[in-house]
Amino acid sequence: MAGALAGILLTLGVILFVEGMRKRPPRPKKVKVASAARDTRWDRLPRRTKQLVIVGFVGGLVLALLTGWVIAIVVFPLAVVGLPWLLSSDDANARIDRLEAMEEWTRSLAGVLTVGVGLEQAIVATVRSAPKAIQPEVNLLAARLRARWPTQDALRAFADDLDDTTGDLLAANLLLGAQRRGAGLASVLESVAMSVAQDVRSRRMVEADRAKPRATARWVTIITLAVLAFFFVFTDFMDPYRTPVGQVILALLLSGYVGVLVWMKQMAKGKKLPRFIGNEVAQEALR
Fold this sequence. Notes:
Among the domains are: about 45-85; about 90-205, Receptor-associated Protein, CATH 1.20.81. The longest helix has about 50 residues, at about 185-235. It is elongated and about 80 Å long. The protein has helices spanning about 1-20, 45-65, 70-85, 90-115, 120-125, 135-145, 150-160, 165-180, 185-235, 245-270, 280-285. By secondary structure, the protein is an all-alpha fold. One of its GO terms (cellular component) is plasma membrane. Keywords: Cell membrane, Membrane, Transmembrane, Transmembrane helix. Pfam families: T2SSF (PF00482). This is Flp pilus assembly protein TadB. It is a multi-pass membrane protein.
């Protein structure tokens, strides 16, 4: 009975892991707002992550009570939540999607400016057509302009909301256009959009190369989990690890494997380019 239930729990863990690996459309980046003092790290977690943590903890607890594998209380929820994140590429894809959204919005803004309206009116006019990836930032920029913020302050805050070097480039050109009020801003924005499009193409090529070793690591991990589940349920291969010392050794081995995955994810992430405009940059320069 215990062996059958342990097998069911292990199978459930593998299913949850595979479910977590499924690619989903990235959520738009939320604009930074001051969080309430009572909010904890648990409160800020997405609902799906909370569900996976609860299911993983309950599964690990039941497995520990039935089999004596105390390590399952920690390993089970960490594996269900952590491995899909370590082996996914959603962060890189989300950054590229935001760049594409900046390019699309810049072209849209340039098209509105050719009609002859002012910069502030053109920004407000593009709110409804703003791409979903940067829609919160564009909405907030338009709201600040409607609230009679100085245009330069609103654009610097917009750069902080985007929090990206490309966003700084876009905001810097908008700042120059707001200061000079010339007729050539539309053509400048078209040039910026072309530059962003080239950046997107090169980043997609880099991400395609990075996806190959990530896919290899993903399949190796899935196969390893399946083999360990088979050994645990149907053989006595894992018996030496049932003792307290054996479980400590197993925890060290698993930690080493996870450490390699973390190292691989950090290598694939790349170094973030420094920003050069915005209120946050100005405050850091005064320190």
